Structures are given as structure tokens and as C-alpha cells.
TrEMBL record:
UniProt TPR repeat ranges: 221-254, 289-322
Record-given protein name: Tetratricopeptide repeat protein
Keyword Chloroplast: no
UniProt xrefs under Pfam families: TPR_2
Keyword Repeat on entry: yes
Source domain of life: Bacteria
UniProt cross-references to InterPro entries, sorted A to Z: CellSynth/LPSAsmb/PSIAsmb, TPR-like_helical_dom_sf, TPR_2, TPR_rpt
Organism: Rasiella rasia
Keywords (A to Z) from UniProt: Repeat, TPR repeat
């Protein structure tokens, strides 16, 4: 009897394996014929009999399942994309060189990244983060992990961002890699392509010239800056300082890291240290208007209005259309108005007080006159800025420019009516 029992068991296993193989083949045939729903039904039936299958059959099953779920997911069904990712990962655990699974991973990654980009455009940053991280788990491409971290910051999920950034640092990730580039003829802009093949294909269009290769810049400084700022926002200043100190000790002359430290101490409110670091940065790039603008912001926050205006004006020297610098010059100058108005309001009725009042009134008018050119220039660049229009309307009214004041009033009413 024992002999028959063993034989019966072997027959049952064989029958089950045959059934699994049959369902998998049906699923593969349906998928090949673009009958995705039918393929899904067959693969689901095969999964119920998977327990007794050998590794070869399990590989075949999970490969087919990954392909079916990917086909059914398109660029929108994230749950099916995750199912596909899990299946392809199981295949690669059993056979790391499986060409069909590796191809499926490439296709899945494209779907996940495209879907994440669409989410980011719609400001659905949390969803984009999850898709990018899922892509990393299946593609093992650290760029996906870096993008997931960046997306987490946009989603204000700082704990996840910190986890991802720390993983990148532990792996020694820098983002440095070869890039395939070409110059777009239409606007002379250098464009980066996904790979050499993509660039070669685009060169055939006749829209590009000067194909070349270069190494991407390191993003380690940006990662450390983000980690330090996250620690700072969480109130963990000692951790933030430790991250930056270690980084600076390793690369003392790295301008990216100096900027990262400057951002960090700015968040901490240490404006003296911030200005010192910014001076080091400017020494490396003395014609960069953004640097002077940032120094202006730092000086203004530190209470040094005159120095702030000086830096803003330097920013304008190197970029005459830097509208933010124009606005900040005007705002900083108008900050002096408060002291003038307070003194005017505190004067008495004596002859001396009346004479002082007239002096202060003229100072206020002169201040407005000095500010107007900056505001007018800014408004030419920011025609839809309602606060600029309102400010100019009030100032024109104060200096007696009635025609201009009325024009601004009409413009303001039109803008407010359109909201």
C-alpha cells in the first residue's frame, strides 16, 4: 500500500504542474494577441496552483504576470504597476540575467517615471514620490531614488526625504555620470539626452548640432544641503552642523558645499556666518547676480538696509532685468518711511515743529521719487503683479502724479475684476 500512496502523490504533483504550465501558456498567448483581460484571468488561475512549482516554472509565471500587469497598467494604474514591479523582482531574484525580465523592468520604469512626471506637473508630489521610489526598487537606478527624495521635499514629507537622502549618502551617490548632449539649433540651448542612441536618433531630425559628451556635475552638495536644512527644520541643529562639518572637512573648497552651508546657517538665523560664506562664494563667481541678490536678502534680514541696497544694485549691474532686485531695492528704501511718518505724527503745533514737519514731508516725497524708477522698471517685467500696481498708484498719488495715479487705479480695477 505504501508504494501506491507514493506513486499517487507523484502523479498528483505532475498533474498540478501540467495545469500551471497550461494556464501560463494560455496567458502568454492571450497577451501576445493583446487580449490583456483574458491573459489576466489565465495568470490568476495559474497563481492558485503555484505552490508546488519548481523554480523554472515560477520564473516563467512571474515573468508573464509582470508583463501582463504592465500591459494592463498603462501610465495611470499605479496598483498594477506595483504588481508588475513585484513580479519582475521575483524573476530577477531567481535569475538575475533574465533578458525578458530586464526588458520588462526598462518598460516599467518608463511608465512609472512618466506617470510621476505627470503627477509632479499636477503638484501631486506624494504620489510622484511613491512611483519614483517604486521605480528605484525595481530598476536599482539611484537617479530614481534621488528624484524620489527631491519629490518628497516638494511633498513636505521630510522624514521620507531624509531616509532617501541618507541611503544615497551611504551608497556614495554623487550623480556624476556621462551625459550625451547636443545643441538645439532653434535657441542654441544645450539639450541632454537619455542615452547615446536617443541623441543619435534626434540628430537625424536636423534640429540639433554639435553632438558631444560631458560628465554631469556632482549633486552631493545639494544632497547635504537638503539633509542639513531638513535637520534644521526639525530642530536638530547639532545633526545639521555635524553633516556639514564632515562634508566641508572632506571637500573644503567645494563651492556647492559652501553654498549648502550658507543655506543652512541662513535657516538657523546666523546672518554673520551667512554673509562670510557668501563672500567666499562671490570670490569664485564675481559676476553672478544671484549671489549679490542673496547677499542683499541676508543683509536686509540682518538689519543693514544700506548694505542690502548696495548688493541689490550689484545684482542689477550684472543683470539689468533682475526684477526681484528692483522690487527689493524699493521695498528696502520704503522701509525708511516708517521712521519719517512716526516723527511727523509725534510733532506738536509750534513753529519749529511745523518747520520740521515740512522738512520731513519733503524727505518722504524725495524718497518716493527715488523709489518710483525701480518700481516702474519692475512693472515692465512683471506686468501682472497686482501689488506693484497698487504700490505705484499710492505713490503717484502722494507725489502729485495724478494722471499716472488714475492710470494705475484703472489698471488695478481691471486686474481685480478679472480675479
Amino acid at each position: 500500500m505504501k508504494k501506491y500512496v507514493v506513486l499517487a502523490g507523484i502523479l498528483l504533483v505532475t498533474a498540478a504542474s501540467f495545469g500551471q504550465k497550461k494556464e501560463i501558456k494560455k496567458a502568454q498567448k492571450a497577451l501576445k494577441n493583446n487580449q490583456v483581460a483574458e491573459a489576466m484571468g489565465y495568470i490568476d488561475q495559474a497563481e492558485g496552483m503555484l505552490g508546488s512549482a519548481d523554480n523554472d516554472m515560477k520564473t516563467d509565471f512571474y515573468l508573464t504576470k509582470g508583463q501582463i500587469y504592465l500591459a494592463d497598467a498603462g501610465n495611470s494604474d499605479f496598483e498594477k504597476m506595483k504588481q508588475s514591479a513585484t513580479s519582475f523582482n521575483k524573476v530577477l531574484e531567481m535569475d538575475a540575467t533574465n533578458k525578458e525580465a530586464l526588458l520588462g523592468v526598462q518598460q516599467l520604469r518608463a511608465s512609472l517615471v512618466n506617470s510621476a512626471v505627470a503627477d509632479q506637473k499636477a503638484q501631486k508630489y506624494a504620489s510622484a514620490t511613491e512611483k519614483l521610489y517604486t521605480s528605484y526598487t525595481v530598476s536599482k537606478d539611484t537617479l530614481d531614488l534621488y528624484n524620489a527624495a527631491e519629490s518628497s521635499v516638494l511633498a513636505k514629507d521630510y522624514d521620507s526625504a531624509l531616509t532617501y537622502y541618507e541611503q544615497l549618502l551611504d551608497m556614495g551617490y554623487t550623480g556624476i555620470k556621462k551625459e550625451w548632449i547636443a545643441t538645439r539649433i532653434e535657441d542654441n540651448v544645450i539639450v541632454t539626452f537619455a542615452d547615446e542612441g536617443s541623441r543619435s536618433t534626434n540628430m537625424l531630425s536636423g534640429l540639433y548640432t554639435n553632438p558631444d559628451e560631458r560628465m554631469a556635475k556632482s549633486v552631493k552638495g545639494e544632497i547635504l544641503r537638503s539633509v542639513a536644512i531638513i535637520y534644521t527644520s526639525k530642530g536638530e541643529k547639532e545633526k545639521a552642523m555635524k553633516v556639514m562639518q564632515d562634508a566641508r572637512a572632506e571637500n573644503p573648497n567645494d563651492i556647492g558645499l559652501i553654498r549648502a552651508e550658507a543655506d543652512m546657517v541662513y535657516q538657523m538665523g546666523d546672518m554673520k556666518k551667512y554673509n562670510e560664506l557668501m563672500q567666499q562664494i562671490i570670490a569664485s563667481d564675481p559676476t553672478n547676480p544671484e549671489l549679490y541678490y542673496n547677499l542683499g536678502v541676508g543683509s536686509a534680514k540682518n538689519g543693514d538696509a544700506d548694505k542690502a541696497i548696495e548688493y541689490y544694485q550689484k545684482a542689477l549691474k550684472y543683470n539689468p532685468e533682475y526684477s526681484a532686485a528692483m522690487i527689493n531695492i524699493a521695498a528696502t528704501m520704503l522701509g525708511k518711511e516708517t521712521a519719517i511718518v512716526e516723527e511727523m505724527n509725534n510733532l506738536g503745533m509750534s513753529k519749529a515743529d511745523n518747520e520740521r514737519y515740512d522738512v520731513l514731508k519733503q524727505q518722504r516725497k524725495d524718497l518716493y521719487t527715488e523709489v518710483i524708477p525701480y518700481l516702474e522698471s519692475a512693472m515692465k517685467l512683471r506686468t501682472d503683479n497686482i501689488e506693484l500696481v497698487r504700490t505705484l498708484m499710492n505713490i503717484y498719488d502722494q507725489v502729485g502724479e495724478d494722471t499716472k495715479s488714475k492710470a494705475m487705479k484703472a489698471k488695478l480695477q481691471q486686474m481685480e475684476g478679472g480675479q
